[in-house]
Amino acid sequence: MPEMPEERSGLVVLRVAEVAQFQEKILRAILNGDIKDVIVTPQQIVFGTQILLRNSNIAGNIKLMIDNEVPRRNQREARIKAANTMNALQRVSSTAAKVEGELKPTDYEELANLYRLVRVELNSLYDLLAPKEKEKYYGYFVAVTEYEKKIAEGVYNPDLDGVLKFDYAK
């Protein structure tokens, strides 16, 4: 049986913060009229948040990161930020679930503010890592982002670009 891949908890934290930033930007762009003819439904928010929570295992990855990589002196603060993050993510879902019909401008603003809170808490949680850990996870983040950019642009070639690797120890 193949070995399980190593958890990249800090990378997951950064990626979920990136998703929260993207969601916030879209909601604000719709609210401000920068994006026309786009409707986000409450069900999309609820379903998307459930998928994000499940696929990222953000709660488990945050716990793993705090227990194993956050310096002991920062762990209490990290646990508070973790709880704030998870509460905000749950509030995104519960806020959207309460909306009957289409989202109103006040709903867009409230949801965007909740996504901002998730992003800020996750980024500040990441900042509690030791410098060596922050550098490692940032390297992972950049590598994944470049890989995804090439795929999105249709220029990724595994024969030329190789396989995405996370071995930054060398």
* Weakly predicted, low-confidence segments: 1-5
Question: What share of residues is helical?
Answer: over 70%
* Count of helical stretches: 7
What is the SS-derived class? mainly alpha
What letter string, H or E per element, gives the SSE order? HHHHHHH
Number of strands: 0
Indicate the radius of gyration in whole angstroms: 18 Å
Dominant shape? globular
Distance between the termini: 28 Å
Q: Which sheet architecture does the biggest sheet show?
A: none
What order do the helices and strands come in, and which of them pair?
Layout: H1 9-31, H2 42-56, H3 58-68, H4 75-98, H5 105-127, H6 131-153, H7 158-161
Helix pairs in contact: 1-3, 1-5, 1-6, 2-4, 3-4, 4-5
Structure report:
The chain has 170 residues and is an all-alpha fold. 72% of the residues lie in helices and 0% in strands. The chain is built from seven helices and no strands. The chain has helices spanning 9-31, 42-56, 58-68, 75-98, 105-127, 131-153, 158-161. Mean pLDDT is 87; it is low at 1-5.
